[in-house]
Design brief:
single chain, 253 residues, Rossmann fold, four-stranded antiparallel beta sheet, 8 helices, 11 strands
């Protein structure tokens, strides 16, 4: 199951996952800026690398707030759309195609590396998780900050849900339904089936894509960050941050 191809297919539809993508961009940027300031001591105009940027949901909002943002993703189609979205908003963001397993082309000296939207669980093994953390660590200045958001798998592994949603939205009078089916293949991995069904002028049209996730418990992520040279990893939760997923914050040694 090719993650890059899955997100290539999703790139032109990704904004449809949100009731209002532009509003979500601004809301997430405010939440992340607050975390960057409170947890990492960062203010706007400092350098941030978004190492799983997708079509730019976090990068666009942070750049609009004044941060110097670079972004990369393994999906060429997602990167191309992120470039278009940045251009349309007159934002100066350097986007590149790169996997979080090899970020050497992005340079170093960043004040923060972020990895949002449950990107780390696409990694297939503990060794890949450590490798990604090492790559992020190498991009940071000393005392730089790593921030990642991940679904609450400590809870979800107890529930093993099969369906998420549906969510019902409206586009100028036309309805839209977004839902997920989780097909568990073993104790920790599941195939994530995403469906977006839209009401068009005379018919309903459904988009489907699929990718694999490995449900990562928080202690596994914390241990991998320690192996990669981070310290003081701390988990903060939506009730505290206003962000929609639990977030881990760690400092580079």
């Amino acid at each position: 199951m090719d993650t890059a191809k899955s997100y290539d297919a999703l790139a032109k539809h990704y904004h449809l996952l949100f009731e209002n993508w532009d509003a979500s961009i601004e809301r997430q940027a405010r939440a992340l800026a607050s975390i960057l300031q409170r947890e990492c001591g960062l203010m706007t105009a400092q350098r941030i690398l978004d190492c799983a940027c997708g079509i730019g949901t976090q990068a666009l909002g942070l750049a609009k707030m004044g941060f110097q943002v670079s972004g990369c993703d393994l999906s060429p189609a997602a990167v191309e759309r992120a470039r278009v979205e940045a251009s349309q908003r007159s934002l100066n963001i350097q986007f590149s195609i790169a996997s979080m397993l090899n970020l050497t082309s992005l340079g170093d000296g960043f004040d923060a590396v972020i990895c949002m939207d449950n990107a780390l669980p696409h990694l297939e093994s503990t060794q890949e998780l450590i490798q990604a953390a090492e790559q992020a660590r190498a991009r940071l200045r000393r005392e730089g900050c790593f921030i990642a958001s991940i679904r609450d798998y400590d809870q979800l592994l107890q529930e093993r849900p099969l369906v998420q949603g549906p969510a019902f939205y409206s586009d100028q009078g036309h309805r839209r339904i977004v839902f997920q089916v989780w097909e568990w293949v073993d104790d920790s991995r599941y195939d994530f089936h995403l469906y977006i069904t839209r009401e068009l002028a005379s018919e309903w049209q459904t988009f489907h894509t699929c990718a694999r996730y490995r449900a990562l418990r928080r202690d596994e992520v914390t241990a991998a960050l320690g192996e990669a040279g981070f310290r003081n990893a701390r988990w903060i939760f939506p009730s505290e941050t206003g962000f929609y997923q639990p977030i881990v914050v760690a400092k580079a040694n």
